[in-house]
């Protein structure tokens, strides 16, 4: 293994002091352009990389952001594999963080005390929470005074942190209104957990659209486990077998795609036998057959906004909550009744 170059070797090659090298690399003091260029050239030739552990100890900043995801069966693997919403979100967070000279670290933590240990051990400068933010975790984080930004949270105790949410209620309304305008009046809402504030908001939007159309509230079907292809597939098998409904609104694109596959495997067609509408507008949703009608929630924009807010909060600025608009994307999986 090749030995790493040291700051002393860079200084010797550039013909300056170690302090001058530090000034140049950290941009902390004014140095002449000619000296700066000699230092940078020496660093490039020696392939010098700063020891960020040492830097974090000196500056009390690690340039690390912790991204916390929901845990499924004691791991984040399940949710990352089953729902590419998180992949798209984290891609945007990572890009924005890197552009601001931060790295990210992913974790799924279940117990409030785990957060304190993780933050202190990794010397994290800030946190991004994706999804639910339980009150026990809020109390733990509040006592540590760590900068944080939340994504997809509605709990009342979260108001002390800036959050980036979408208009979930409007999204539910748009989905139901689209189906109603196509003649559907037997609509079912597929939910993993209606106690989840995000799904609850979407369901409320569906109810409002149906009420405005003079129709009864939508039926609710409980999906198994998590938003996954499998849970959507099982729900789709049941829906196609029972034939009680003409359309289904799914809480995610992932479960919607599972429904479409189940209808196909059962010998049916979408949307002729069952109109299906999702929520997210994942990249893959436009490429399946039939392509998925869905509610676009601008995942990349949400991730970018959240990361930008966190950078500003870590720099001592105040940030306000932000609501991102949604839009209906009509494709092939819904049709007239």
Automatic annotation (TrEMBL):
InterPro entries: Cro/C1-type_HTH, HTH_LacI, LacI/GalR-like_sensor, Lambda_DNA-bd_dom_sf, Peripla_BP_I. Residues 5-59 form the HTH lacI-type domain. One of its GO terms (molecular function) is transcription cis-regulatory region binding. SUPFAM superfamilies: lambda repressor-like DNA-binding domains, Periplasmic binding protein-like I. It holds the Pfam family LacI. It comes from Alkalicoccus saliphilus. Residues 6-42 form the HTH cro/C1-type domain. It comes from the Bacteria. Keywords: DNA-binding, Transcription, Transcription regulation. This is LacI family transcriptional regulator. The keyword Iron does not apply.
